[in-house]
Fold these 4 entries.
Entry 1:
Amino acid sequence: MRNGEIFVAGILALFSVYLMVKSAELPIGFVSGRGPGGGAWPFWLSAIMLVCCGFIAFNWWRGTSPPSRSEEPFLDSYGWRMVITVGGALIVFVALIEVISMYGAIAVFLLYYLRFLGRHSWGLSLTISLATPLIFFFFFEGAMRITMPTGLPFTDPLFDLLYEIIY
Amino acid sequence: MEILSLLGGGMLLALQPLNLALILIGVTVGLFIGAMPGLGSVNGVAILLPITFLVPPSGAIIFLAAIYYGAMYGGAISSITLGIPGASTAVATTFDGRPLARQGRASLALVTAAIASFIGGTVANVFFTAFAPLLASVALAFGPPEIFALMLLAFATFVGLGGDDIPKTIFSICFGLVLGAIGFDQISGAPRLVLFDMNGFLQGIGFLVLAIGVYGIGEMIWTIDQARGEVETSTPKMTMRGMASDAAEATRRGWKGTAIGSVLGFFVGILPAAGATPASLMSYGVAKMMSRVPEEFGRGNPDGVAAPEAANNSASTGSMLPMLTLGIPGSPTTAILLGGMVIWGLTPGPLLFVQETEFVWGLIGSFYISNVAALLINLAFIPLFIWMLRMPFTILAPMIFVLSIAGGYAATRDMFDIWLIVIFGLGAFVLRRFDYPLAPAVLAIVLGPIAEPTLRQSLLLSSGDPSIFFTRPIAGPITVVALILLLLPALKLLRRRRGKAEDGAA
């Protein structure tokens, strides 16, 4: 955690500098007759962020913040496995939305999570992962009139059928 | 006396069978829409606006106000049970609501939220009834310097009260404010902070994108990691007797927060552009400051649930005041209500109280009735919300992820934002591991678009002289209090060091 603390502070400091540079694309000073320039607000806030990173590094050096005194690793083997299996699944879930539709992606994600991470029975996993997208469809498209992504054209026949029910 | 008879007439109008049915349906629909992460009162009111053309204008506004009330109660439900604030007004409710739910005391948190909301709403109704025209003129005295000073106070409550790492808290606030500045410069219209030259940033980053990322994804992954796969789901049982004892405990341990939230919430709510989010945040801060056990805040103190909940309901009623009396909406929802009134042929403004007496007092009467209806309906559904918490965590967790992504898309309709939600979620998990507080960033992204233009307008008024924040009669004291709160941690640190030095010398 001790190394991680200074590493994260360094990354955030670099990001603050990047934000300052991007803000400076617009005027950052006082423009006569028009008040502070468009870049002033984000520029000075990013500058404060940079100063804060300096203080965080100072506290790290003095060892006053809890992570800077901690000897435990940022993530142990369980933590890494969990971040990869859950975080990775979320990324795949979002990537699938534009391929097999929001509802298809929900079904696949739930089935994966319930069956393989949650170790629930096939029956329960299949029931929840099929019922949830259906309920969501009728709630979002039917009741709230919010259209969700339907994915690539191969999903059209299924959606035509479902839309016929609600319209 | 005249006010009482007008109010009585208004209540009778609200109790007519059609209007009463509209109130009951509106509150129930609002409660469930508000409880969905990603959907808030704005969605409910906007979606159901067309339905209101089927009923007379007085019934229509009563229906919309009932949805608004229901959604305000509903916002607390996802904050407490899922840990995801359904709306920015309910962010502060997660601070103590979520810890209570983790301790298996979700019912206490939900009952406290319901009772505090009811009292907040009722106190605001009484203020509204008694002082509407007078308060409208006070609200008008709030110009850009006063509103900026108020925003400064909201941020100062965070820094001044936090026992956490101060540089990290300030970093978080500034980070949220910068995220809120992405998109277009509101004054010149020039594109600003288009990060990595990706066009998706041109539309800015909404509050919900950050909130759902931080709470729906980041916080969940953090919980799964901390619990090492064995998340203890509380299995609270809900009985009538249990609810009665929770109600008694909520009253005993949450009265102070309720009182602070009810009064402070209303006054912050009536200010144009301020609204329920800073109101709930400030009330939480003040309740913590005035508590005898401030260290219990953030670990499951009922006062910490009561204060923001009383405040957001009170402020919601308060924000109706500038809309009705001046025609200035205080929040996006009241802006839609205002639009509805214009479509129905009513002109909001000072004359509304004179020309459309029946409409105005019917609406005010319906506030009282909606509030009672919302309390009863909310209490009736608490067992259902508690039942949700008894689901095994390996079912609840993927459901929350799915709700976050689908709710996020419903709110923004943009895949770019969904990717941002995932990135914010994973980033929030890392920052949470290193003790960065993230709630300040979430609130800052809401308040930033109010704070920046008011700061720029104020400096334009004073030709760049910042003393404008100190010399105006209302802005001055607010700014001074904000600065004292900001400097408080440094003063405490100095005193502690001096104390240590004296001990060493002795």
Note: Chain B touches chain A through 60 residues (CB under 8 Å).
Entry 2:
Amino acid sequence: MSIISKEKINNLLTSKAENSLTITPILDNEKQIGESTIDLRLGTKFEVDMRTRKPFFDPLSDRRPIETFFQDTYRNFGEKFILYPQQLVLASTFEYVKLPDNLFGIIFTRSSWNRLGLNISSVLQSGYAGVINLELVNNSSNPIALYPGLRIVQLILFSVDGEEREAYFSDSISKYVANSDPKLSSISEDEDLQMLKNKFPINS
Amino acid sequence: MIISKEEYLNNLLDSFCKYEEKLNILSNKAYPSDIVKKFIENDLKMIITEFKKIAHNDLKNNDDFFSDKTILANNIWDQGHLQRIAKAVANTDFKSHPLEIMNVFRDLIKDIEKNDFEILTIPREEMNFSFSEIWFKLKMFLEKELNMTGFTVNKKFIKLTFPKNHKNNLLLSGIFFHEIGHYLVEENNFADKIFQKIDFNSDDFLSLRKCIYANKGNQLGQVELVNIFRRCYLINWIRELLSDILAVYTVGPGFVFSMFDFVINSTNINNFYNDNLSNTCSVSHPRLSFRFNLMLKALKELKIYNELPELLKEKIESYQDAYANSNNQQQNRSGNIIINNINYTVQESKFMFQKLEDIINDLTPDMLAESKQLLGEKNIINKNKLSQAEKLAEQRIKEVIPPNELNNIAADPIAIINSGWYAKFLYKNSLKKRVGKIDGKNGDYDLNLLINDLMKYSLRTSRIQRRWQG
């Protein structure tokens, strides 16, 4: 397993081969592609969590779907979005990413945002296709103004050794496939929940 | 008088005050555009304040008669103009705004129309689209008749209603283009201009006299005939067909396929089985086979029809044939129309509909040429946009990549819309193979969802990319 370098990233991005790396659109190649990282921008759609009458979200209950705990909103490029302390907001990268089957990725917040109290980290499986969900939580005690279009996270790509595997998006049980907007948690679709319901019913 | 002037005015003032209350509530809502808020707070409130003042002044006045201003305000109120605007504003919000496609329309209309405008999008439960201007004429009337000045929003407000469940259905967006066509036809008196080109002395036109009966022995000459068809059938059909042409000219096959989807959606299963597809004429619409035929003519006239992949051409021709050969029988009705206090009975017949189609066929070259002129070359679909659509479908959507750019250049929005249809027809099987989630359990629903998501993303990002690169 090794980190993919700038040269290889650029080769993969310009390759005409099927199942190569896609990151689209890259508005500024020079600024966004570093020695071993790719900077990705904050997208324009947000899912903001809300306090509701129900005291909690319960993945085992379908009475109150998770959508009812979030409100979607939109900001143009350059328009302000305020992230309040300890507030959870789901956003996504502006770029759509498709990884080939022999790469996987990790994203981290760019350090300048880290220092303001914004920490994001996530793993992208081989073959992933879609915008990357960003779970924004402001860990500082002051609200932070965010602007769609700003470079917010960096993607590091690793090669995966071994035999070819099925692409993430061709796996019919994949929960997050080819998303183009921030996607809410699909925890309710977790197969273990069905197992818990069947094998360990509450009243047994 | 059964009730007194005072009672009447008090009642009217009560309605005005309730409207003002409603405006106060509406001004606290968030809207897709800040202009809407400004419009409520400044302009609508200014009108209702003025109306209240007019009614109140009349109330203080001991005359037995209502003032001219009160009568005018009351007429506007009775006709429901202000209530319709408030209803439209109340029903528009962030959640129901089909942002991506609206931006395409915004750019298109801005390029064609000289006036500034705002679009209010209103979701509806039923499968129905409409597009109309709700403010500008009222504003001009108030300025002229009540000397009201100081309106802050000097732009048109276009009300666009669409089926709520299809908010993100970009595969159906061709229908929106047809509705924009209606708006452009209306705003430019386009149908009237075409109507004037009819040869009113021709045998075809004059033979329509056979289908009309003038009651009480009134005369039915050429002038009366022109007046009748300026009000119904011909003028409506011209409006409908012009909107179709404008939609074909802007979005090309994307409109034709949306239209097929739309009509199939409204076809009863029994009619489908018995080759009984609804292909009848009415006072407002020509038959579908006639419309499809004209759409095909428009595609051919643009010289893009032959550029389409064979499968897509076959699809268009099969729909056209299916409707042209439908067993559906025309129910011929008769209806009355009153013009200048004279009652005319129009008897529908195969003969009448055939004559109307013949007259319109003669107008087709003018309709095509003038539609082109209205849109301007830049907004007309061409071979390049279609070839881009084909590449976007093959190189991007088929690979589960959004069709937002080609070779680092932002894709054209019309090419993006068409690429969705290309992908749906040409790459359905490869997408099914690639994306396990599209397993067919929900029919084409998951496939449509994936294509729509990719198109939606592409319309949004390509617009930003174009601006960034520009």
Note: The two ends of chain B are 69 Å apart (CA to CA).
Entry 3:
Amino acid sequence: MARITLSKLRHSYFPVPYKEEHWALKQLDLEWEDGGAYALLGPSGCGKTTLLNIISGLLVPTEGQILFDGKDVSHLPPEKRQIAQVFQFPVVYDTMTVRDNLAFPLRNRRVPEAEIAERVREIAEMTDLTPTLGNRASHLTADGKQKISLGRGLVRTDVNAILFDEPLTVIDPHLKFRLRAKLKELQQRIALTMIYVTHDQTEALTFADRVVVMNMGEVVQIGTPSDLFDRPHHTFVGHFIGSPGMNVLPCAIDNGKAVVAGHVIETANRISKDAALTEVGVRPEFVSLASQGLEARIVRVSDAGRFRIVSTECAAGPVKLLAGDDIEIPADGARLRFDPANTRIYADGWLAGSEADR
Amino acid sequence: MNKTVNQKGWLFVAPVVLLVAFNALIPLMTVVNYSVQETFGDNLFFWAGLRWFVDILASPRFHDSLVRQLIFTFSILLIEVPLGVAVALAMPRKGIGVSVCLVFMAMPLLIPWNVVGSMWNIFALPDIGFLGWALNAIGIDYNFTQDPVDAWFTLIFMDVWHWTSLVVLLAYAGLVAIPDDYYQAAKIDGARPWAVFRYIQLPKMRRVLTIAVLLRFMDSFNIYTEPFVLTGGGPGNSTTLLSIDLVKIALGQFDLGPAAAMSLIYFLVILLSSWIFYTLMMRGEES
């Protein structure tokens, strides 16, 4: 068990990076608390797998340090770091039984056989693999194999953290839910640091206590699921989290207030500095139809079950809002009201003013 | 969807059936025909029944050739398969080295078989060939045209040179198909190189190695051109493998009946052995 610190970390796959685009991972300082459940969330190619492989030691970072409990491990190989990793495609040793698969990491570390048997029994029980212990690992289903991968990490007593690299990608949808619940349950039971990489917001938000959102090789926000939803620090987070994502409209600034298509929009924050691009962000949950406000044309109404998603078009761009079944939607023109407490100004993508503490 | 039942399919298959009939079935049946008859000049044929089969199966000459054939085949399998795997493991996985290695590996396979035989014949000649001359120069008494052991050494060396590449290419294809995740997981599990080979690489290469062993088995059992050009079956009969013996009987002595019977026995031996090989190697897959 350890606290993991990343200090001034940068990584590039180019031998001699000299341009900003060459960095797969831009400079990064991060602290992972011992026993926390983290999710690394971001679109494909944002650098999350790179970051994970740096933590596990499969990659050596171009610059910066990784500290486990304050001890520099940046140049230690994976087997010396006491890290377990579960990969996207389940890795099992085909010719071995499930039991031998689970015992493999311990045998490699020359743990006494009696102790191995005890650990394997315990972990098999935890991961529901007991009935299949004697079977050949290659005969299991994908989720069974993924459990073996996980079990090989859990079986070791020296593990500092378990890293998951999109572990549910190849699992059938109906089993995904079960395996995810299992992971969460195990995390709470054994209080092991777990870092879970995914591009699926549902997976990230249901698994993690804290979510690290990445985009283009850079961490854009770290927070609890509700932080990310309520106070996105970047328009990317607003877009990426929530379905449908946050509405972002370009705005003019007058006296520190946002002006969209001639309407002054009341917001939770003020802008103090100049920016090349200023935008107003508001989630569809906080937009309502009103008797006055921003003029908009209703483009489409789609039923999402408990509510309807109303797509409108105002002078500054498209705005989506959620409407309950009881609300009457006008056929032609409508006026939109943004909830001031949940409407924010963004400067060059980032949350403006003092509310942001980055 | 309803499937229409009609006989049109036969039309599409017919060309292949005809082709196979002309290049395989009809010649094979001709051989069967010869094998049960005695032939004389002027196209005289007499029914011989199973006599040739009984004769061949009882003849020491056939036994000796078969034993030589088995020794040859198993020797080259024992050398070529481990060597091929070892070379494949040592080959680079990316960069310019990959193409260079692949081209070098493919080269021996592209050389016509009789050229391989001639090359090695000249290469190994004790007086003018580089190999023969060099061996003698360092004090080893080597003459493959007179000494059976030297002839065998040269024969096996030639086959290893010619065909190990095939095993290398197949094994390499198997190796590069293993996803990186496996190697990374093994690293994290603390597996040493031997364990990685034993539990990841070897099991993942199983299928391609089965094919490699089967191909090398069948091809080496059928081998004719290279030993014929290299040693002609000599000195004496020491390197007379089955196919060389067969040609001696059929074309040297023009004993078509016994030669035909021997061909069929030869054919059945290969078929049976390949089947046994395949069954044994595939059994692990299902259990």
Note: The longest strand of chain A covers residues 23-32.
Entry 4:
Amino acid sequence: MRKWRRLGLVLLPVASACQGGAEVSAPAEALAEPRTEPRTADAAVVSAAGDATPTVDGFTPEEVRALLKLSPLPDPPSDPTNRFADDPRAARLGQFIFYDTRFSATGTVACATCHKPELGFADGKHFGEVGGVAGTALERHTPSLYNVAYNRWLFWDGRSDSLWAQALRPLEEPREHATSRLAIAHTLHANPELKQAYEATFGALPELADTQRFPPNGRPGNAAWDAMAVADQSAVDRVFANVGKSLAAYERRLLTRAAPFDQFVAGVRSGRVEQQASLSPLAREGLRLFVGAARCVRCHSGPNFTDREFHDNRVPTLTGEPRRDAGRHNGIPVVQADPFNGTGKLSDAPEGEAHDKLSFLVRSGESWSEFKTPTLRNVELSPPYMHQGQLATLEDVLAYYNTLERAVPSHSPERTLVALESSPEALAALREFLRALTDARLDPELLKQPPTPSLP
Amino acid sequence: MRHLWFILALPCAGCGAPSATPAETPRADITLVEPVAAPPTDESASARREVVTSPTGAFTIAWRPVAPAVPLNELFELEVLLYEGGGTEKPLGGAQLRVTAWMPEHMHGMGRRPQAEETAPGRYLVRGMLLHMEGLWQLFFDVTAAGRSERIESAITLQ
């Protein structure tokens, strides 16, 4: 019940505007305490397991039990490897940096350059590219950041095991920010506002004024970096990691979990038929298919609509050429070797969960060209779809899954993917249901750079 | 989390081949018999052990999750008691134990290789299990001891 209350607190300030679905008119309090509403005796059936399953017109008890697993979405899981994950000061600094182009080699690239709030925190392109830095695009599509706090793995291939470790990679990637950990530390040190915000949260910066010890630019592999004392390298690595932890603290706030679908499920739990009207009849039919005959819920499971793992959905490449992207197969050794992973020196909890998460991974042929299952919440806001943006619209995605036409051979014996073989009407219903997963009512203050990197 | 627990009445396809992986010996033709244990209803209670004997009767295991129930899509540990022969009277220490899992309907495994550690004679702790999808999972316990290797199969359905 405590989590319901927390969810209610989040929902209360949310504006009533609703994108992509029927207007939501039920009060947030109804979501906050769904089980306190009276329910008529015939409004539920008792399952074989002994628990009461609400009845919903047109749905079997099995389908109802399946849909109840999809909402509500609880608070994001904690990240013990980042003790600043839920620190408001770290989140404020992270939000400031997210929109700040000074953390790039050219002074023109910020995280928001590709993760645009107005495009669902993605960029609308096939491949991520910032332009003007190295002149070449990345090999994969920019993913949305909505609900990124729930991910077990980051990047399409899961080559990072935490949000803070993920945030570091684009900063030093030559085709993205193209900067270095030393340059980042100097930027923080040189700007009084940034320095104050950083030190108030993370403690004193190193003696960066001494450019003999701390050259202006450098990272592992650069001569300037490699000539530094190990202790000084470690000090800069800590600053770099803390920048990632502050970015993660901000990104953990980019949540979407009060869609029309969630109102519908709250109505199912409470027995309030009028609340169930937040889903149109067509979207309800799509939901029934989603959890039933269409089997979407096999991979898009749980309240964030993802199993947080990896599959090969056999989508042809954008160019039609043979697949060369090994996906998860190559992501595994990278994440295990990452000095910023959850077991590393800069993790705040290197034992236990972080250790177990990494230690037992197995790199096999089955994982070749597997990619992470994305969330479907707010999915309509960030086309195109798939890891190369191969499919331009949700209609294209459903059409592909309907026939699996042009599906390419897989290295994996996995047979999770089965053609839907549904009617156009059924696909339209699924499309309408996906629209009902949209909740873009994020606090507008989170969509832009705050005036200062420190809290007032 | 509710579970349906089953013991598989199957001959062992991988007996004598401890290095075989589930991917090499997938089985879609599973025959299930009656559930032998009710799902745990008390969150504080330990799960009941599932007792399974290898096809030739050389080894017997009694396994259960360390937590009250096997979670869906979260890391968990198994406690496996290993015995010599077809009963549970003779604990078998010093054996090699490897545990894997396989979804026969989807034809995939866990993407993880759990590790077993003997914590007391005949008692093994298996770390690194994660069943990320709902449905029937076959569990394979490959036991090697005294120059003999056998595969013991069990299963769990996650809902």
Note: The CA atoms of residues 16 and 148 of chain B lie 7 Å apart.
